[in-house]
Amino acid sequence: MSDWRALDHRTVVVTAANAAGVAVAAGLPAGIGIGGGTSPVIALAIVVPVALAGIAAAAVADEVRWRKTRYRVTAERVELHTGILVRKRRSLSRERIRSVDLTAGLLLRVFGLVNVKIGTGEQAGAGEGSLALHPVTKAEADRLRRQLLERAPAGPVAGEPENGRLATLDLSWVRFAPMSFLTPTLGVAVFGAVLQVAEWFGLQQGVITWALDVLRDLPLLAAIGVLVGIGLVVGVVGSSALFVEMWWNYRLDREPGGTLRVRRGLLTTRSISLEERRLRGVEVVEPLGNRLVGAARVDAVATGLVKQKENERTDHKTLLPSAPKAEADRVAALVLAEPVSPTESVRLRAHPLAARGRRIRWALAAAAVPVLVLLVLGVTVSAVLLHVAWISAVVLAPVAVALAVEAYRNLGHGLTGGYLVARSGAVRRGTVALQRRGIIGWTAKQSIFQRRKGLLTLTATTAAGQGAYSIYDIGESDGLAFAETAVPDLFGPFLERADNA
């Protein structure tokens, strides 16, 4: 395919429909506010023409964008010409293309359209490492993905993992969704949303009065319990619904040409492709809530996994959502083409007891900050806050110590085969298995407090994932020897050896 092609012309209809939705969402409270001061007729006379003008302007702008956008795929390059006032001509070498990700919201799916993002896996600024086609037909998107990512040999290669389905969604995994900090956050957000909507209609004071009347006959603790219970129920429903929307019809496949493909989504479908030659390991992530119920997720550690502009979350690198820990270990092993996941097979070495003391001291210091603030406010503003301060201290101190001890227990490091494995974290425990050949450097940091305890923080530098993975508060001599064993000749020339003394 070498001829210049246009995007699908139905993009104009989709843009007009989206603009209409925005106009309704923004026009409703605006109309209510204007109508409250005048009359509904005058409010409609003002809001409706403005909304129609906005919809028309969006449609015209997208029509011009469609006319000025063309793309083509040649034997060597993918080219895209865009721009209305300023014309842009961009191209990517096909040899550098590492991903073709497909995304389709509800409206696009109604019209059979898909947004395509072609990426090189390079962290270039201003989107220089990617091209976006918004939108093309689903058939065209699938053809582009196959054409740009197919690099399969003529026949099977000995020793390569078999292609096929690696994992699918089990609806029972939804039970893990509420076990996160998102649940109470959603509960609080819903209370705020109710009050905001009530304010639009001038009913906020009435809603607050009604709620106080309902709770007035209850003891204070019971009233607080009712509010917390309602918030938690709303949060559980909301977090479960979000999980279903994001991970519905989830499938993880290994495709010909050495590509891992994740497909998921209910209202907005997503297809994310990852070349296995970019993979440098995996991270098994166990947030505190999920860890309590035996769940974990699997993230890819790969080069060029940069957040998309339209998706600022971290799920672009997630290969498996929250699932039973045994399933996470199974998927990690399949992704790495290993008999057993390195995160499961290695026995991690414990860190010195001095590391536990550091964590306890830092945790108590963090807990002391709000207590001190409350004490100062209690002395200067209200004596009631003094009682809040000592209650907070009684509650926060044991929680801080418990989290610190848990953080120490989770520290560990080890080597297994070609992988370095490191674990850390209490609220978010992460166990990363990093290919030793993917480590391009070591950094050893030692604060004055670590030096007194004979500890240091050892950081493995890599071109993949976060770019650096740390082993915190490891023993000084053990850490340097471990770094030399994991990747010889990086630290070796700078170490003083006893046999050379």
Task: Give a structural overview.
The chain is α+β, with helices and mostly antiparallel strands and 501 residues long. It folds into five domains: 5-149, PH-domain like; 164-169 and 248-345; 182-245, no CATH class; 353-409; 411-500, Roll (PH-domain like). Helices cover 45% and strands 26% of the residues. The strands form four sheets. The chain has a seven-stranded antiparallel β-sheet, with helices on both faces. A six-stranded antiparallel β-sheet has the order 14-13-12-17-16-15. The protein is flat and about 75 Å long. The N and C termini lie far apart (68 Å). The model is unreliable at 154-158 and 308-312 (pLDDT under 50).
Counting helices, strands and paired strands, the structural category is alpha+beta
Please count the helical segments.
Answer: 14
Low-confidence stretches: 154-158, 308-312
- In total, the number of domains comes to 5
CATH architecture of the largest domain: Roll
The gyration radius over C-alpha positions equals: 28 Å
User: Could you give a short account of the major beta sheet?
Assistant: 7 strands, antiparallel
CATH class of the largest domain: Mainly Beta
**Record field, number of beta strands:** 20
Question: What is the average of the pLDDT values?
Answer: 87
Report the β-strand fraction as a percent range: 25-35%
Distance between the termini: 68 Å
What fraction, in percent, of the residue positions are helical?
40-55%
Strand order of the largest sheet: 7-6-5-11-10-9-8
Domain YdbS-like PH: 66-146, 408-484
Organism: Prauserella muralis
Protein name: YdbS-like PH domain-containing protein
